[in-house]
Every structure is written in C-alpha cells, then in structure tokens.
Amino acid sequence: MEPMRERSGSAVLPPSPEIVLSFHNVDVWSVPQISTWNRFLKLCRKANVGNAKHILQDVSGIVHPGEMLAILGASGAGKSTLMNVMTSRNLGKLKVSGRLMVNGKAIKRSTLAGISAYIQQENYFIGTLTVREHLRFQAILRMGKEVKHQQRMERVEEVIQELGLSNCSDTIIGIPGRIKGISGGELKRLSIASEVLMDPPLLFFDEPTSGLDSFLAQQVVALMKSLAEKGKTVVSIIHQPSSEVFAMFDRILLLAEGKTAYLGQAKHGIPFFQQMGYECPLNYNPADFYVHTLAIIPGAEEECRKRVLKICSAFRDSEEGKALEVGLTGDAVVDGVSNDLSDANEAGDEMKFKYKMSWFGQFRAVIARCWIANLREPFIIKLRLFQSLMLALLMGIVYLKQDYNTVEGLMNLNGVVFLFLFHASCQNALAVFNAFCEELPVFLRENQSGMYRTDAYFISKVVAEFPFSIFFPAVFTAVTYFMIGLNEKIERFLVCTLIMIIVANVSTAFGYMISCVTRSIGLALTVGPPILVPYMLFGGFFINNNSIPVYFIWLKYISWFYYGNEALMINQWKDLEIDCGDSIGCPPSGDAILEYFHFDKDNELRDILVLVVMVVVYNLIAFLSLLFRASRRT
C-alpha cells in the first residue's frame, strides 16, 4: 500500500474520515421475472437461482484512501453490476451475496449513502438554473440545520473554486436544443461539484469520461486524481480511456465474464499478462489491450472463454490473488451487524434517509427552484398568454353579440359553452404533460440521495403551476364573455370564471397524472390526448345525456366535461326568459334548454364540488405514481 496522502478538508465542514472499502466473494444473479399471468396459472411457483444468469462470480477487491481504482472490462463483463453492489443501488431485481465493508466493518445502505457520493454517467440538471444557483440548492438541502446559511454559501464558493467553475458560475446550465449553456466538460465538473459539497470520503464514478473528447476526459480524470490525493477513496468505471488517462489510475480491476481477471497496481498489469503469454504491443494503449484480450468475440466464443478462464484462474492462484484473499478474510464483522449482502437486500430494499432539512425547508427550497425555472423561460409563459388572448379574440369575433331571439343564436351559445370547456381542458392539460417527465431523472437522483421527500417535491410543483391555472382561464373568460354576450348578470360572469378556473385545474391535475404515469414526454403526448376524446364525447354536447348507451354511462360520470358543461349551462340558462317570437323550435326559456339537454338546474353546486374532488383525485393518483417510481429506484 502506498503512503497515505495528506488530507485537505473543507474550511466549512469538519474533516471526513478515511475510508477503506472492501468487497469479498460477491456473487450476483439476475432473478427471473415471473409474469402475473404465469403466477396466476401456477406455471412457475418460485424463482430458481439455478435458472438465473450468474452476472458476477466470486469477485473480491479492496480500495484504500488516496487511491484511485479503475474498473475495466468489455461490455457485459459486470462493471455496472459491481458498481451497483458497491453503491447499494438498483438491486431490486438481483440476488446478491457476499460482503461489503468499510474499514473492516459491514455497513448498512443508509450509512453508505451518508459517507459516499455517486457521480452518474448522465448529467441531469434543471437547465434554467445557473451553476451557482444549482450548487446553492444542493447545499441548502444536503447540509444539516446545524450548518448556518452563511457557511453553506461559503462552501458553495469553495467548491466552485476547487473544481474550476468560477468562469461559468453565473452561466445558465442550459437545455440541449432549447437553451445554450455551459460546455460538456463544465457539465461533468458540475456533476462532481454537486456530489462533493458534503466532502464525502468515498467517491464512485460511473464512466466519467463518456461523451467527452480526449482533452476534456483528461481534465476530468485529473480532477478525480486531485480528489484522491486529498485522501479520498475513488472508484470509477472507465470506458476506452486514452493512455494518458489510464496512466493516472493507481490500481485497476479487470473484469471478464463476471470474474476477476486482475486486481492490483496498474503498472504491474502488463507483466502479469506477459507471464500468461499475452504480450502488449509496443506503444499500444494498455487499456485497449486488456479489453481486447478479455473480450468474448462473436464466432470464437469457446476459445475466448477458455482464455478468460485461464487468466482468471491464474490471477486467483497468483501471489496478488492470494494476498488479496488473505487480507479480505482477515476483515472482521463487529457489533453483530450482518455481513451478507443478500440479508441486506431482504431486510431493507428501501433506503431510509434522515433528511437534513425539515419538510417545510424542503418545500421552500424546491418551490423557489420551480419559480426560477418558470421565470427563466418567459417564452413559454408568453406563448400560453398569446394562445389564450388570440383564441379568446377569435371566438369573440366569430360569435360576436349572439342574438337570444333566434334559434341559431341559442345554438351558437350552447356551442360556445362547450368550446370554453374544450379550451380550458386542452390548453392546461397539454401544457403540463412534460412537467414531471422532463424532470424525472433529476427528481429520482435527488430523491434517492435523500435531499427531499416525494410529497414536498410534488406539492411544490403543483403550487408553482397553480397561479397559471388561475390566470390564463380568467383572462380567456374575461375577454370572450362580454364580447359574445353571455348571461349579462355580473354574478353569472363570476361563477363562469370560477368554473373555468376549476376545470383548468382539473385538466392540469389530469396532465400531471399522465406525466407521472408515463415514462417520457413522447409517450405522454401519445397517451394523453386520446384519453380526452371519450371524456369530451360524453360531456353532454355531442351526445344527449339521455341517449348514452348504458354500458358507457360510467364514462359520463368520470368526465369533467360532463360536470363542467352542466355547471356552465346552468349558470348561463337558469331562470332566463327567452323571446323568439313565432320562430319554429325556439325554447320558451333557459330552463327548457336545460331540460332538452337533460341537465338538472339544481345540480350546479354538486357539479362544482365534484370538479373540486376530481382535482384532488387526479393529483393524488399523480403523486402515488411518482411515489411508486421513486420506491422502484431504490
């Protein structure tokens, strides 16, 4: 083992402990997924590990403070699975056995999350924030109440300086294809900065150089090296590193077919393979040589597997392999804590975090971020306002001052009422189909890191959107109502505005539900609009309430178009006298129109209350869907 590097802790946070991470005899199987149909038919009563794929086989290793370990191997070698085991993430569909220890002691998943940082391959951010705003948000939620606000901000500035983000600290992060932001290298450094705010002693990197050119990749790995030199324990999956990048790693772990092919000093890897008869060509990248030597080539699978088995067996019997085994078996388990990863899986699949901030503190931080995100995209707000005004003016001009003394005028007014509903429903539902889909990766990562609760996040998003669900339908109604000449009583105008606002919130909640249930914006836009069609069809305008087939009657009672249409029609026609003279087919009163549509004028309050209940129900379904997604990721 190399001499320990001098630690350089944060000036704000207390120095973090030094971590020795070890894993011993790790075996992982993919558990066969049994369909509900097969369970019902009892065709497959129990998952049999013997029929499962053996992903990792007896993998062991150890990493010391101040070291940087690179995990290499061909595709399918088990690199990501081993990283998941070490970080205790995404193990729900896997059967895992073995020991995972820190400083010789078994460790629980929740404890591991508190002392480590996991820098994922993908860079997920709220792109409308600046670099400094993002880091401040992270600091507020990740640092405990005992840390003063001023100290949090000092830590943010400290990290910005350490990771070379000063030049872009006030630059918007950006959204690909929409908002120009910081560069790829700066994005990767920001990912690292987000995780090192709490100065964790253990760092995991998942392919940190993926998608970067050679220059940026070298910069990122140099940054990782500097963190290791401060006494941190660094573990990284690395994909196709250049020879310069590979030379920065102290130790390497080579995986092949789920087995350990080599673990030791990077400079000793080539001599080990030479002893096995595999010579690395002169001036050839050692990383590429290892991957090619251990890869399973299509068409030559049997020969390649024999070579892999030979190398893995040779390492196990080598001095390095034996020394590793002796060192790991000497690790003790103390305090009666279970050292079996399979026990840990069965005992607690769900991470239990002790949140650093109170619920209200989480809510306040997330809603502030939501407001900043909304205000940073004024084009979207302006576009929605433009749509509301233009459609309002168009409808107002087309139906300008309708005549109550003609059958045509009365029919047009009935059509206007339904168009009000259609506009409020479509505009607000379509506007939020992307509300949760777009931020889902960010939410899952931050929620899994214990930054905030699912309910705090969901309520913050709903509250941040709520003013728009009031403002836009109110503007639309105010412009069109008097242009068209709907019921002139001011109290009827106010009730109409109230109903429009409630309908807008129902459709917004419906949009949230679709956004949370579906996995992507494309899927939400594919699924959402077709669901609106039957709701609209049974709203009482296209088909009379009295002629709906009995087997479709349930659709009427779950359609907010029905309750909204009835409420608006009652508000428009209740107790209104009509004088069409001798016109054929002209109703004598507004009550007659309601009777024709089979609307009960005493149902107005009921309809409004049902619409309010629908707002709650759709939001509840959306929240439960989001909660389910969050629980599935642990």
From TrEMBL:
Source domain of life is: Eukaryota
Q: Which Pfam families match?
A: ABC2_membrane, ABC2_membrane_7, ABC_tran
Name the residues that span the membrane.
379-400, 412-436, 456-481, 493-514, 520-541, 548-564, 608-628
**SMART domains attached to this UniProt entry:** AAA (SM00382)
Topology with respect to the bilayer: Multi-pass membrane protein
Ranges where the ABC transporter domain occurs: 38-282
Gene Ontology CC: cytoplasmic vesicle membrane; plasma membrane
What does the UniProt keyword field contain?
ATP-binding, Membrane, Nucleotide-binding, Transmembrane, Transmembrane helix, Transport
Q: Which SUPFAM superfamilies match?
A: P-loop containing nucleoside triphosphate hydrolases (SSF52540)
Localisation? Membrane
Annotated GO molecular function terms are:
ABC-type transporter activity; ATP binding; ATP hydrolysis activity
The record ties this protein, via Gene3D superfamilies, to: P-loop containing nucleotide triphosphate hydrolases (3.40.50.300)
Q: Which family does it belong to?
A: Belongs to the ABC transporter superfamily. ABCG family. Eye pigment precursor importer (TC 3.A.1.204) subfamily.
Quote the protein name from its UniProt record.
Protein white
Q: Record the organism.
A: Darwinula stevensoni
Lineage from the top down? Eukaryota, Metazoa, Ecdysozoa, Arthropoda, Crustacea
